């Protein structure tokens, strides 16, 4: 059965799932839920995901939310062990980065997305105090990635896994987000030289202005 992904491809966690499913090679059908119209807060989506947050997945009668859980389910369903290894320690390592992304990394990167992308788009201004307050936390977390990527091309093992997709997604608009990446060269090399070169990433690109249409 083809997975149905209820999502708006312009949001971080939806782009994560769409790119991850392409990496995995899991066929899916997109059910568009318009984020900027607030459809995630309305029925029928709300009954599917009572968190009022995107994305969600259905596989027949089975319903699932949490972007990382969706990727893990899809990888196991199609049996892609390169994208989501079954070997005990490699799997624990992938799981570790995905938990870390959801609990720590996404919330930090999201501050830059809201202040530098969402607010200006809606006619507001970034709040320098909010950005300043997040800087130390961002650099602490980026430093964790920097050390991990100093001697390896991918977060886990020799090739891309759903951990790379999950962690990179939080930074998917890094230029527009104005993420302060200057002190993290290994992180930048991984993001721009590896993740951004993946076909699954390029096929799901989101451009400035929150659009999937390449600017003319
Ligand atoms: N931990 C959740 C986070 C989902 C989430 O925060 N989604 C955002 C879009 S990236 C959302 O829909 N937020 C609700 C809103 O802003 O109204 C996941 O990974 O699926």
Which strand order does the major sheet show? Answer: 2-1-3-4
Output the structural class: alpha+beta
Do you know the CATH architecture of the largest domain? Up-down Bundle
Q: Which consecutive residue ranges, at least 5 long each, have pLDDT under 50?
A: none
**Gyration radius, rounded:** 17 Å
Oligomer: single chain
Instruction: Give me the count of strands.
Output: 4
DSSP strand content: 5-15%
Question: Helical amount among residues, as a percent range?
Answer: 40-55%
Kindly report how far apart the N and C termini lie. 37 Å
The CATH topology of the largest domain is Glutathione S-transferase Yfyf (Class Pi), Chain A, domain 2
Mean pLDDT reading: 97
The number of distinct structural domains comes to 2
What is the highest CATH level, the class of the largest domain? Mainly Alpha
**Topology as a string of helices (H) and strands (E):** EHEHEEHHHHHHH
Q: Categorize the overall geometry.
A: globular
Largest sheet: 4 strands, mixed
Query: Total helix count?
Result: 9
Structure in words:
This protein has 216 residues and is an alpha+beta fold. It has 2 domains: 3-78, Glutaredoxin; 88-198, Up-down Bundle (Glutathione S-transferase Yfyf (Class Pi), Chain A, domain 2), CATH 1.20.1050. It contains 9 helices and 4 strands, in the order E-H-E-H-E-E-H-H-H-H-H-H-H. It has helices spanning 12-24, 45-48, 67-78, 88-121, 128-149, 162-169, 174-177, 185-194, 199-202, and strands spanning 3-7, 28-32, 56-59, 62-65. The protein has a 4-stranded mixed sheet, covered by helices on one side. A hairpin with a 2-residue loop joins strand 3 and strand 4 (62-65). Helix 1 packs antiparallel against helix 6, helix 4 (88-121) runs antiparallel to helix 5 and helix 4 packs parallel to helix 6 (162-169). It starts with a strand and ends in a 14-residue tail after the last helix. The model has no long low-confidence stretch (mean pLDDT 97). Residues 11-13, 40, 52-54, 66-68, 102 line the site of glutathione.
């Amino acid at each position: 059965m083809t997975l149905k992904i209820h999502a708006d491809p312009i949001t971080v966690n939806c782009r994560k799932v769409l790119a991850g499913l392409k990496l995995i090679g899991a066929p899916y059908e997109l059910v568009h839920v318009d984020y900027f119209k607030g459809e995630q807060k309305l029925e029928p989506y709300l009954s599917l995901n009572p968190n009022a947050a995107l994305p969600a997945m259905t596989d027949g009668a089975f319903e699932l939310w949490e972007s990382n859980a969706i990727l893990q389910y899809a990888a196991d369903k199609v049996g892609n062990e390169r994208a989501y290894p079954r070997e005990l320690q490699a799997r624990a390592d992938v799981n570790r980065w995905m938990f870390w992304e959801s609990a720590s990394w996404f919330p930090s990167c999201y501050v830059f997305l809201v202040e530098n992308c969402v607010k200006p788009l809606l006619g507001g201004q970034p709040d320098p105090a909010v950005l300043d307050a997040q800087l130390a936390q961002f650099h602490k977390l980026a430093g964790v990635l920097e050390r991990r990527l100093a001697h390896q091309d991918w977060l886990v093992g020799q090739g891309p896994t759903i951990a790379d997709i999950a962690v990179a997604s939080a930074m998917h608009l890094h230029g527009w987000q104005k993420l302060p990446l200057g002190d993290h060269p290994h992180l930048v090399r991984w993001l721009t030289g590896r993740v951004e070169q993946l076909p699954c990433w390029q096929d799901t690109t989101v451009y400035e202005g929150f659009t999937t249409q390449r600017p003319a």
